[in-house]
UniProtKB/TrEMBL annotation:
<dbReference type="Pfam" id="PF00326">
    <property type="entry name" value="Peptidase_S9"/>
</dbReference>
<keyword id="KW-0378">Hydrolase</keyword>
<dbReference type="GO" id="GO:0004252">
    <property type="term" value="F:serine-type endopeptidase activity"/>
</dbReference>
<dbReference type="InterPro" id="IPR023302">
    <property type="entry name" value="Pept_S9A_N"/>
</dbReference>
<comment type="similarity">
    <text>Belongs to the peptidase S9A family.</text>
</comment>
<dbReference type="InterPro" id="IPR029058">
    <property type="entry name" value="AB_hydrolase_fold"/>
</dbReference>
<dbReference type="Pfam" id="PF02897">
    <property type="entry name" value="Peptidase_S9_N"/>
</dbReference>
<comment type="function">
    <text>Serine peptidase whose precise substrate specificity remains unclear. Does not cleave peptides after a arginine or lysine residue. Regulates trans-Golgi network morphology and sorting by regulating the membrane binding of the AP-1 complex. May play a role in the regulation of synaptic vesicle exocytosis.</text>
</comment>
<dbReference type="GO" id="GO:0006508">
    <property type="term" value="P:proteolysis"/>
</dbReference>
<keyword id="KW-0720">Serine protease</keyword>
<dbReference type="InterPro" id="IPR002470">
    <property type="entry name" value="Peptidase_S9A"/>
</dbReference>
<feature type="domain" description="Peptidase S9 prolyl oligopeptidase catalytic">
    <location>
        <begin position="213"/>
        <end position="369"/>
    </location>
</feature>
<dbReference type="InterPro" id="IPR001375">
    <property type="entry name" value="Peptidase_S9_cat"/>
</dbReference>
<keyword id="KW-0645">Protease</keyword>
<protein>
    <recommendedName>
        <fullName>Prolyl endopeptidase</fullName>
        <ecNumber>3.4.21.-</ecNumber>
    </recommendedName>
</protein>
<dbReference type="InterPro" id="IPR051543">
    <property type="entry name" value="Serine_Peptidase_S9A"/>
</dbReference>
<feature type="domain" description="Peptidase S9A N-terminal">
    <location>
        <begin position="3"/>
        <end position="150"/>
    </location>
</feature>
């Protein structure tokens, strides 16, 4: 075994081998969302790395899938999954580049099992808030795609539904994505007025909540509701800074204010009204909905909190509880006054007051230690 590059603080990189080159996804040079570089296999030191694709702040690179004649770069662009195909040729000149196009405004996709090296066929999974999970093959030469398999959903007619992507503007000017799905014949879909709405959020640990298909959502839609996902800060949809600089520690309140701003945007946009707006979240998402009903109880009619992490101060101040110490990496160490005082401003249990709260349903469990 050979070390490509010794460990360095704050340096992240992933390596794939193609021909006589190593292709490297790296955050070198302050590229927070990473860029693609390469180096000869016999000159692996960082000083020999050269840029393959220019860095784009709105594009986050995650991993590579390597074929004999192509490399597929997988990541996120403007908050949605993306695939960028590099036509490698001999590797002696810059590759030709094209992106896979997807038919819907909001969707989820991922590279499936691609175990054949000498092929022009890239296999990937795809779904959306309307389209059930499927597996497709994309011919990287002809740019044609073939549907191999799609999950059968009994009695489901996708032509009745549509999804779209919106952007709310947070109070600090940040644009926050919202994924929306609804029946075309609902009040909102038919342009007849606002509909009841279920708004979901998570916004922690850098986790991305991608707009994928769920048969459970259909029961909402068939009752005339709109289902929405707020891709708020604290998640990772818009890149690493969306979490690391703007959604944790002393910036954690952005998660909660973003969610309120998304709710207000849906109300102002005629999607729903406060008296017909329900919200839901689980675990850290339960903390989210617990915090926002304290901040804006007037904005919501109902709240469903699943195994919610609501007693933040007690939990974070007790290192004997499983996971507490590791959770300090998300919320901060309350032994430091700046984190202690900041957490106290949003901890749901510690901010309950004499307010006209929405209806709240809470479920508990034994398999989520921070939330149980």
């Amino acid at each position: 075994p050979r070390v490509v590059q010794p460990r360095e603080e704050d340096h992240r990189y992933k390596v794939e081998h193609w021909g006589s080159w190593l292709y490297i996804i790296t955050n070198l040079g302050g590229c927070t969302n990473s860029k693609l570089m390469r180096t000869p296999v016999d000159k692996m030191a960082k000083a020999n790395w050269t840029e393959v694709l220019p860095y784009e702040k709105t594009t986050k690179l995650d991993y590579l899938v390597v074929f004999k004649g192509h490399i597929v770069v997988n990541g996120r662009a403007n908050g949605l999954k993306m695939c960028r195909v590099l036509e490698m040729g001999t590797g002696s000149s810059p590759p030709k580049v094209h992106d896979l196009a997807f038919p819907e405004d909001c969707y989820d996709m991922f590279a499936d099992h691609n175990r054949v090296f000498d092929t022009a066929l890239f296999r990937f999974g795809y779904s959306s808030l309307v389209s059930p999970s499927s597996v497709l093959e994309y011919n990287m030469v002809t740019r044609q795609r073939t549907l191999l398999k799609e999950t059968d959903v009994p009695l489901y007619d996708r032509t009745l539904y549509t999804c779209k992507r919106l952007f709310a503007t947070a109070k600090d000017g940040t644009r926050v994505p919202i994924s929306l799905v609804y029946r075309k014949d609902s009040a909102y879909g038919a342009g007849k007025g606002p509909s009841p709405c279920m708004l979901y959020g998570y916004g922690s640990y850098g986790m991305c909540i991608d707009p994928c298909f769920s048969s459970k959502t259909i029961s909402f839609l068939d009752r005339g509701m709109v289902y929405a996902i707020a891709h708020i800060r604290g998640g990772g949809e818009m890149g690493r800074d969306w979490y690391e600089k703007e959604g944790k520690y002393l910036a954690k309140r952005n998660t909660f204010t973003d969610f309120c701003d998304c709710a207000e945007y849906l109300v102002k946009g005629g999607v729903t009204t406060p008296d017909r707006l329900a919200i839901t979240g689980r675990s850290a998402g339960g903390l989210l909905v617990g915090a926002v009903v304290n901040m804006r109880p007037d904005l919501f009619r109902a709240c469903v909190a699943g195994v919610p992490f609501v007693d933040v101060m007690t939990t974070m101040c007790d290192p004997s509880i499983p996971l507490t110490v590791t959770e300090w990496e998300e919320w901060g160490n309350p032994n430091e006054s700046k984190y202690h005082d900041y957490m106290a401003t949003y901890s749901p249990v510690d901010n309950v007051g004499p307010k006209d709260y929405p209806a709240i349903m809470v479920t508990a469990g034994l398999n989520d230690p921070p939330g149980a």
